[in-house]
Amino acid sequence: MVALRFANAVTVTLGPSDDAAQHRIRNGHCASLIEAVRARLRAREREEARFDGILTVRIAPAPDDPPSSLSRAATIASLRTRREAP
């Protein structure tokens, strides 16, 4: 794995998530706020990868199914949009 560092500073407002991040720091799960944010980003990436795997299996075409008017990529994008809607 290659670690890349960028010189750009980023400001993030955590809002309600700040309490959860501070709780993780107080309980020793993370040493700093940036560690808590990075851990959550990694968890989100794992969650998305699992979801993509589920979508791939669920929308895999059956041999006897007629072709769909939507492509596989369009179907996954549509389902992801619905999932992320508030």
Model description:
The protein is 57% helix and 0% strand. It has 86 residues and is mainly alpha-helical. It has one domain (17-60, 67-84). The longest helix is centred in the middle third of the chain and has 26 residues, at 33-58. The radius of gyration is 19 Å and the shape is elongated. 2% of the residues are buried. The model has no long low-confidence stretch (mean pLDDT 81).
Please describe the structure with a list of short key phrases separated by commas or semicolons.
86 residues; mainly alpha
Mean pLDDT equals 81
Ranges where pLDDT stays below 50 over 5 or more residues in a row are: none
Order of helices and strands: HHH
Q: What is the percent of helical residues?
A: 55-70%
Return the structural class: mainly alpha
Q: Tally the helices: what do you get?
A: 3
Strand content is under 5%
Number of strands: 0
Radius of gyration, taken over Cα atoms and rounded to an integer in Å? 19 Å
Largest sheet: none
Count of discrete domains: 1
In one word, what is the shape? Answer: elongated
What's the N-to-C terminus distance?
A: 34 Å
